[in-house]
Amino acid sequence: MATVTTERVFNFSPGPAVLPLEVLEQAQADLVALPGVGSSILEISHRSPAFDRILEETLADLRTLLGVGDTHDIVLVQGGASLQFSMVPMNLLRGRDAAADYILTGTWGTTAIKEARREGAVHVAWDGAATAHDRLPEPGEIRLSTAPAYVHVTSNETIQGVQWKREPDVGSAPLVCDCSSDFLSRPIDVANYGLIYACAQKNAGIAGVTVVIIRKDLLARSRDDLPTMLDYRTFVKNGSRPNTPPTFAVYVLGLVCRWLRDSMGGLAGIARHNAAKAKLLYDVLDASGGFYAGHARPDCRSDMNVTFRLPDEAAEKAFLSGAASRGLVDLKGHRSVGGIRASIYNAMPVAGVEALRDWMLEFRRSRGG
């Protein structure tokens, strides 16, 4: 059956987000019956040989793409990054005398700290709220507590559009990272992290599965009074299958890993691709004379979420309406900050970003800019 693609819009949603077309087509082809299995991925047992292969290949591809060594375990869990806001402190902070340090660069880091405070002492090592989280801290601005249990950062803030391009220096403390919105978008040195977590529905697949990469020695911190399904050791011991996992979400994650590996040149290749896309939009912002005002400071800008304002709300409303008529959708900024947000994750094609760039130039000219 031929795949009809002519009606697809350019989807700039912050998540669930655009998927690679070839991943969608492969999932479509396999949906009724997996090759050699005769049943849909939606139907097969999570204990079947077919799913064994899917899970094993997905975890192996994640390990290869990210360069994860034997020092870390990779597990697949449920509940999204929001559940990790609780699981991280439950496993790494509960019952400890030390505080957990949080570097707050936007909405999601601020949300994570609320859950951590339920489990133990928390120290804010830096907070960018004074300038509406439009930047990252300078190294000398971060004030860590004495021997923190861990230091938490959000690698990319989707709402404010700021992104760490290199991890902060936290000394010997385990660095914990919410990597949800730039996971698999660029190479990172996993050895520098104690724990990384990322929901899949931005760059890595669909909603329903969350990747956790945890340094093995940190598993000893989990206490026996934890609920079974909130204990990282449960997932490590049971190979990510202590209960029925989201089989379709795991399958799509595997397809995305294969696409990155075989079609995009791995994480180094996708990083170049993403940086080039982001530059197309930031060049328009920088040349607009202030007509388009970016939220994030230039040295802290995200390659994933380009956030900006127009001269007034009426102009923003007209911009969004015109964009939608051109098949450029889900560009409205988060309700907490307003404006425009173009989420240009891994699977957003260059053609989509070029179409948005062209509309930005046309709209500015139409307004005398």
Structural class: alpha/beta
CATH topology of the largest domain: Aspartate Aminotransferase, domain 2
Report the C-alpha radius of gyration, rounded.
21 Å
How many DSSP E strands?
14
Could you name the ranges where pLDDT drops below 50 across 5 or more consecutive residues?
1-5
Measured distance between first and last alpha carbons: 48 Å
- Helix tally equals 9
Major β-sheet profile: 7 strands, mixed
Instruction: Output the CATH class name of the largest domain.
Output: Alpha Beta
Query: What spatial form do the alpha-carbon principal axes imply?
Result: globular
Fraction of residues in H or I helices? 25-40%
- Work out the count of structural domains: 2
β-sheet strand percentage: 15-25%
Order of helices and strands: EHHEHEHEEEEEEEHHHEEHEEH
Full CATH superfamily name of the largest domain = Type I PLP-dependent aspartate aminotransferase-like (Major domain)
* Reported CATH architecture of the largest domain: 3-Layer(aba) Sandwich
Arithmetic mean pLDDT = 95
* Strand order within the widest beta sheet: 2-10-9-8-5-3-4
Key attributes of the depicted protein:
seven-stranded mixed sheet, Aspartate Aminotransferase, domain 1, single chain, 34% helix, alpha/beta
Protein described:
- The chain has 369 residues and is of the alpha/beta class.
- Helices cover 34% and strands 15% of the residues.
- It folds into two domains: 27-262, Type I PLP-dependent aspartate aminotransferase-like (Major domain) (Aspartate Aminotransferase, domain 2, 3-Layer(aba) Sandwich), CATH 3.40.640; 265-366, Aspartate Aminotransferase, domain 1, CATH 3.90.1150.10.
- The chain has helices at residues 21-31, 49-66, 80-92, 107-116, 232-237, 247-263, 266-286, 313-325, 350-366, and strands at residues 10-11, 72-77, 100-104, 122-127, 150-154, 156-157, 162-163, 175-178, 195-199, 210-215, 293-294, 305-309, 328-329, 340-343.
- The strands form four sheets. It has a seven-stranded mixed sheet, sandwiched between helices.
- It is globular and about 65 Å long.
